[in-house]
Amino acid sequence: MAFRTWAKLVGTAFGAAALVGAGQLGLAYGLGVLSFSRVVEVTTRDAWTTQLAWVSWFALTAAAAGGLAARSHLTSKAGAGTRLIGGIAAGLGAAAIVPLTMQPARSAQVAGVDAVFVIGACAVLGAAAGIFAAWAALGRNAARWSLLTMSAVAWLFAIVSVAPSLRSGEQVPAVRLGVLDAGFVPDGLAEQASLLTMPALALIAGVAVGLIARRRQLSTVAIALAGLPGPALFTVAYLIAGPGSTRAQELPYWAAMTATGAGVLGSVLAAVLGRGPETDRPRPPAAAEPAPDRPPLPQRDAQPESAIAKAATKAGPGLPGAGTPPAATGRATVAPRAAVAARAAVAAQRTDDELRPSDTGVITMPPFDGFTPPQPQKPDGEISDWVSGLGR
């Protein structure tokens, strides 16, 4: 790759990741999804863990967005090394959210925790893990579809969860990543949904993305792994944040741990179910077989029309196979001795001038230039004249 192409790739990946990361943080601060000004007691530690999961996920998705934006600057000859460099640039751009989170975290009061250091560490770990998300986004179309789908669903759930509080002017409750925490959802149903929402969404997205990849006739391995990248961001974000200390945070934590497997299961189902000879990838047409050199065989009821066959049918009864036409077995055949008799009969009907080499079995050679073949022997009285003629 030329230097200008390298510069465009690295610059686009870095700039897009930084822009998306900062934009997501701004939106989260505005909606109240992130709020570091509240006092977090030991008994409500899960509210702090919830925000750590969001910060980690913002860094992951920012790096993935950098890879998506830099995809247009890759050439057809770009290999895994080039994509890795683009992923590193996207990860560095996503790390731009570190100061944007550490500064507001100075006002957070979390019992027994250095809030500034912890929030910065989560952002750095998310940006580092985002390198692989950007690398996948640079290399695979199916990875981009999965990342976009799951990111859109996460933001949709967050907006729906905070919408009632924004309308009423009340304080926004703690909104968990990948969970529908809207006030209109009953508490019992919300608890069950927190355990099933992410795996169910990952399964549905995996099937949908896998079917799209299958329709685009991608390889079987690409189709089977199409449901991995998007749910993997949830898994990594919750791994960085931790499981929490109460059931309210433990349920989505374990749901995130199973989301990746559910996404892969959905894409594998899309890859293998219903696949048969009709749905396999099209194969190149087979080369046409050459036409046979020999003419087509006669029909079974066809009788031999050649002179040899006719003569064989007229041969005497003393020869094997004579007197009766040969059996028609797809090809006109004559017994060997009958064929000899037929040739003799045909030769007997011709004059000496009409004899053919096939009739006599003797093939004559043409005379050589400049040599006169010897003439038949003349009577004794004319020997001398003949010799003198040779002398001349």
Describe this structure as you would to a colleague:
The chain has helices at 3-31, 45-70, 80-94, 97-102, 115-139, 141-168, 187-215, 220-224, 229-241, 247-272, 307-314, 336-348, 357-360, 383-391; strands at 39-40, 109-110. By secondary structure, the protein is an all-alpha fold. Among the domains are: 1-139, no CATH class; 142-275, no CATH class. A two-stranded parallel sheet has the order 1-2. α2 (45-70) packs across α3 (80-94) and α2 packs antiparallel against α9. The longest helix has 29 residues, at 3-31.
The number of distinct helices, counting runs of at least 4 residues, comes to: 14
Mean pLDDT: 77
How is the largest sheet built, in terms of strand order? 1-2
* SSE arrangement, N to C: HEHHHEHHHHHHHHHH
Distance between the termini: 93 Å
- Largest sheet entry: 2 strands, parallel
Q: How would you summarize this macromolecular structure in one to three sentences?
A:
The chain contains 14 helices and 2 strands. The radius of gyration is 46 Å and the shape is elongated.
